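Repro:
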Amino acid sequence: MYRYDILVSLRFLSKENGGRLHLPIIKDFEYTYRPVFRLEGETMGYCCGVVIGDYIKNYHFERELYDIRVLFLSFQKVKDKLSVGKRFKLYEGNHIIGVGQILKRRE
């Protein structure tokens, strides 16, 4: 099992900016939060797990978080589309709840 498939910068959107009313409940080092990951310009989304690690104590809307770990349910299906610098959105249903950029991809 890999620790992550990609590392990303991530910003959760507040309700005023079209996001959630409350922050998602995320355990610090467990993949318990599972939004849909969609690259900009793509219509297909991919199930993933997100870990925010050390940000757990200082986790707010509209704050840029760095080196956030993302693990895909099926990395093989998405890996050729993932490259450093690509932007993405996180969805819950039809709602965009976060935006970010890929910082690193495992081989």
